[in-house]
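Q: What structure does this chain adopt?
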Amino acid sequence: KSSECQEYLTARLPKGHVGQSARISRAAAPGGSSKEISSLRQFSILSRRNFSILSRDRVSLMLTLLVPPVIAMLDFLFWRRGLFAVDGGDARFAIANLFLTAMVCCLVGALSSMREIVKEKDIYRRERMVVIKVMPYVLSKVLLCVLLALYSSAVFTLFLELSGGWPPLSIVPTVYLTMALSILGGALMGLFISALSPNPNVTPLLLLLVLVPQLLFGGIIPAGQIAQPGKIIGYATTTKWTFESLVKSSSMGDDVISDPCWSLTEDEREALNDTEKTELCKCMGADLFSECNFPGIRDYYVDAIDEPEPLQPARPGPPPTDPQEMKAYDEAMRQYQADMDTWQQEYQNWQQKRGKAIGEAEGTIKATYNDYGQAFKANVKTNWLLLCLITLALFCMVLGVLKWKDRR
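A:
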């Protein structure tokens, strides 16, 4: 077996590492040198071998480099500029786009790595006979995943800017890092499925079982419509934390969250009158059109919002005592009544237009806040930490599966 492994590694290792293969073989062979190759050295050899194999496989290399930009070009079909603007924006469509971005990051990472281990199942077993350690082997795969994540997130960020004019320069690093961590988490998920799979044919089916919860419980379905077990599953998905980080980074809900009126209960908000809304609220009442930065909110604006209340006509004084003045007084009263009828119609129209505009604007904010308020309140750095923890857990699971298979 030792000579077989030596021949295998001699054929598989890149040029310049044949001597290293022989030293590994001698270390494992009976009566050979007891000197063992360090984990760091094994990681270096395995990493260079992975890159060498990828560089020689031109088709795989081209697909690896072309898949992210090809997928990112689809942004031109559903992203549009001004999606987060108060004029012409659309909060719910923006949220849907951000979720799709999070889901694509997970898919790209998982699909790119789902065969990395299972395709080398026999190779890995023979190398383990030689003295190859599990940790360097997995880390060499993770290195490829990291490079893919850094490259793919850069491409996705660029195409988001080209297609939708988002993200602005101030949050580019935040969005880039969020997507990179998401892709890396998806890639480790793919490695875990690859390590778990008995053969390449089973891998896509196992991966499907993991990706469906990412879609269902990743945040796009409001939490109020999901049963408690589904919410618990959602906490273990990378999509949820990526989605909430992207929503928070967009700042679309910052003014709503900072408004003290939206921290009240629904009954307390309903009890507020126009004066209280004007004095206390930023995203409620007539002032929301000028002070609240929420996508598409000014689309509900009407001129009546800034027009003064129609002036009520002055009532004529008391009836005159002189009978000769009664005719003129009666005429003034008739004119007053006509003016009152006109004023009442104008006031009713003014009030209806204002009420409808404010009600629709508040209703849009309310519906979005009730469904995605948790994402508005998210802490991006905390979500990054959670993504890292999920990725680390997946890494440990890959190690655990491979060591478990070694004992079989």
